[in-house]
Design a protein that fits this description.
By secondary structure, this protein is mainly alpha-helical. It has helices at about 5, 15-40, 45-60, 85-100, 105-120, 125-145, 155-160, 160-175, 185-200.
């Protein structure tokens, strides 16, 4: 069952209901993955985790869930790298993250993951959801535990979508003009992380 084929589009109520439920399943998996990575002392990013996050986001909604895309995709006026480059780009991306796991500020690392995954756009659909979840995975594992508070970072990013999209475009443009500049994305994530953490402080003691 692939709902995008059966419903004819993402606006169908059956598609939207399943998409919301997939989001809940993805977040449950994300938290389990963070806890397992810390428990078995494997604090790093892997392509297996990224593919699993994508699978949970788009299972039964689109083809190739949890697999790198077999075709070109277009995102507005942005054309991501061709599909045949994706495996190599993802190898290099994951290696870069893990190489700098301990010598980069955790938010810088998370910002790079968020930007780079969107830039490569490795999956046929659900790239934004996967990138936001991966961003939180890296942040939590790097900091040693699941961050308290709600809404969680991926949801806060979605709630500030217009600002987020503009910052991502500026980050893309920084690459075109010379050197990757993550400073605005870093400040954006830092603000939202503090918002998530402050919400936990407002909760009554159980």
């Amino acid at each position: 069952m692939i709902l995008i084929d059966l419903t004819g589009g993402e606006n169908h109520k059956a598609y939207q209901k399943f998409e919301i439920e997939n989001g809940s399943r993805q977040y449950d998996f994300l938290r389990s993955a963070v806890e397992a990575a810390l428990e078995v002392k494997r604090p790093f990013l892997s392509q297996t985790i990224l593919k699993a996050l994508n699978f949970h986001a788009i299972a039964c909604l689109h083809t190739s869930a949890g697999e790198y895309r077999p075709c070109k995709v277009y995102v507005g006026d942005y054309e991501p790298p061709p599909e045949f480059q994706v495996p190599g780009l993802m190898d290099d991306f994951v290696n870069q993250v893990n190489r700098h796991w301990m010598d980069h500020d955790p938010i810088v690392l998370a910002a790079y993951v968020l930007w780079r995954l969107n830039y490569i756009h490795p999956f046929i659909n659900g790239n934004g959801r996967t990138a936001r979840a991966a961003c939180l995975f890296v942040l939590c594992v790097r900091l040693g535990g699941w961050l308290p508070g709600a809404p969680i970072l991926p949801e806060l990013i979605r709630e500030n979508r217009d600002e987020y999209v503009n910052i991502m475009r500026e980050t893309d443009n920084s690459v075109k003009t010379g050197e990757l500049d993550l400073s605005k994305l870093h400040a954006f994530l830092e603000r939202l992380i503090l918002q998530q953490l402050s919400s936990a402080e407002d909760l009554p003691d159980s």
